[in-house]
Amino acid sequence: MTSIARRTLLALAAAAAVGLAGLAPAGAAALSSEQKTKLAEVNSYFNSVKTMHGDFIQFGPNGERAEGKFYLARPGKIRFYYNPPSKVDIVADGKSVSVKDRKLATQDIWPLKETPLRFLLAERINLEADAEVASVSVEPDLVTVVLADNSTFGTGKLTLIFDASTTELKQWTVTDAQGYDTSVAIYNTAVNGPTNPKLFTIDYNANLMQRRGN
Which residues form the signal peptide (predicted)? Predict the structure, then answer.
């Protein structure tokens, strides 16, 4: 998988998940009652969302920028479409996650349960129980949550920014082990509307053809 595709999966999958594979509660920050209340509100919001779609903007550590649309249907399904000139597509169909690079004509597939996306797409999300919360900052307009990351997809930290009044996720930043940041902002989101099952289809035959060509 290319570094761009790997960074894409980390930034979008891990961050939107509000918790990464391999996170452990040991060593988590002691939280005040206000901070715990805000985390509970975030959990409640995410668990009320069964479908969601909207736009996103991604900023890479070297100043690169990409935009696109995302579609989510819990449990198990999500799709990220990147606008041209990007050639990356990410899709989860309920059992697997595919990252396709149309420029290189490659596709990487993992079991969904082995990726950070499993948290975002789970039936129930519990931020405080499933993640090591390093800090929580509560301001009049924003709530910022920093999670320590020790996952099979890398080490670093995840910073999540929520609207203080609605608890909607607005932006996140993934900081990798080398200290590089990848940030994603989402907007024009709509929740719990109808969705198209065809959005969440993985072309498994493409992988068979890819292996035969190698």
Answer: 1-26
Domain that holds residue 155: 3-201
**Predicted confidence (pLDDT) per residue in 62-74, tens digit:** 888 889 999 989 9
Q: Which residues of 8-46 are buried (b: 16+ CB within 10 A; e: fewer)?
A: bbbbbbbbbbbbbbebeeeebeeeeeebeebbeebbebb
Tokens describing residue 87: 């050639």
β partners of residue 169: 162
CA distance 97 to 49: 20
Residues 181/55, Cβ–Cβ less than 8 Å: no
DSSP conformational letter for 114:
G
Please state, in angstroms and rounded to a whole number, the distance separating the CA atoms of residues 99 and 80.
Answer: 10
Model pTM? 0.74
Indicate whether 213 belongs to any domain: no
What CATH number does residue 129 fall under? 2.50.20.10
Rounded to whole angstroms, how far apart are CA atoms 59 and 57?
7
Give the end-to-end CA distance of the chain in Å, rounded to a whole number: 15
pLDDT of 136 > 80? The answer is yes
| Residue 149 domain-assigned (yes or no) | yes
What torsion, rounded to 10 degrees, do the Cα atoms 166, 83, 155, 3 define? 180
DSSP state of 94: S
Q: Pairing relation of β-strands 88-93 and 51-59?
A: unpaired
